[in-house]
Amino acid sequence: MEVQERLDPEEWAGIMGRFVGILAEGVRRFGGTIDKFTGDGIMALFGAPVAQEDHARRACHAALHLSRAIADYADDLRRQQGLELHVRLGLNSGEVVVGRVGEDDLRLDPTALGHPVGLAQRMESLAEPETTYLTESTARLVEGWFHLTDLGPRRVKGVRAPIRIFRLEGAAPRVSGTRPRAALSAAPLVGRGRR
């Protein structure tokens, strides 16, 4: 908002166009879907509308990629225009409904609805600049695949009990041919059935 106030609307639109382009490329690179533009960011989905067994890992890889890409863009803006751009990311995993909102003549594009969506937004708003915060439900799905810092339980607006929050630090090194046992057993298989 502070940067936006100082700039001409066309200049701001150009900055946001490039910013959203970087975000969209990073999300799509890891198999995610852009759900909506939020004014100064995006909401993305992994594992919906197309099921992905490794959706949480994909989201974490995308978050790490986006953090680097946006940091590079922010450096360019700082050097060329003297502007400061900071990004915060929030991840949560859970069941949502993806579908059209509204009735008949006022039907809006498909979107994700449910408590997990709001909790992801809360993680983003709690995160420090240049960090990604995860809920415990996402942290359990990526355990062993990524380095996480446990920030402990916190009260979150709209949630009755405190929830444990984690900061995404980076990908964990893997020994060739091995996979973390916890990550393999934490998520149910999707799209599998008897023939």
Report on the architecture of this protein:
With 195 residues, the chain is an alpha+beta fold. It has helices at residues 2-6, 9-29, 55-81, 115-126, 136-142, 181-186, and strands spanning 33-37, 42-45, 88-91, 97-99, 111-113, 131-135, 146-154, 163-171. Helix content is 40%, strand content 22%. Helix 2 runs antiparallel to helix 3 (55-81). The model has no long low-confidence stretch (mean pLDDT 84).
Could you write a compact summary of the structure shown?
This protein has 195 residues and is an alpha+beta fold. The protein has helices spanning 2-6, 9-29, 55-81, 115-126, 136-142, 181-186, and strands spanning 33-37, 42-45, 88-91, 97-99, 111-113, 131-135, 146-154, 163-171.
What overall geometry do the principal axes of the alpha carbons give? globular
Give the tally of β-strands: 8
The stretches of 5 or more residues where confidence is low (pLDDT under 50) are: none
- Note the main sheet: 4 strands, mixed
Count of discrete structural domains:
1
Give the SSE string: HHEEHEEEHEHEEH
Task: Give the mean pLDDT.
Answer: 84
Q: What share of residues is helical?
A: 40-55%
Strand content: 15-25%
Provide key terms for this protein.
4-stranded mixed beta sheet; 6 helices; Alpha-Beta Plaits; alpha+beta; 22% strand; two-stranded antiparallel sheet; 195 residues; 8 strands
Topology overview:
Blueprint: H1 2-6, H2 9-29, E1 33-37, E2 42-45, H3 55-81, E3 88-91, E4 97-99, E5 111-113, H4 115-126, E6 131-135, H5 136-142, E7 146-154, E8 163-171, H6 181-186
Parallel strand pairs: 3-6
Antiparallel strand pairs: 1-2, 4-5, 6-8, 7-8
Helix pairs in contact: 2-3
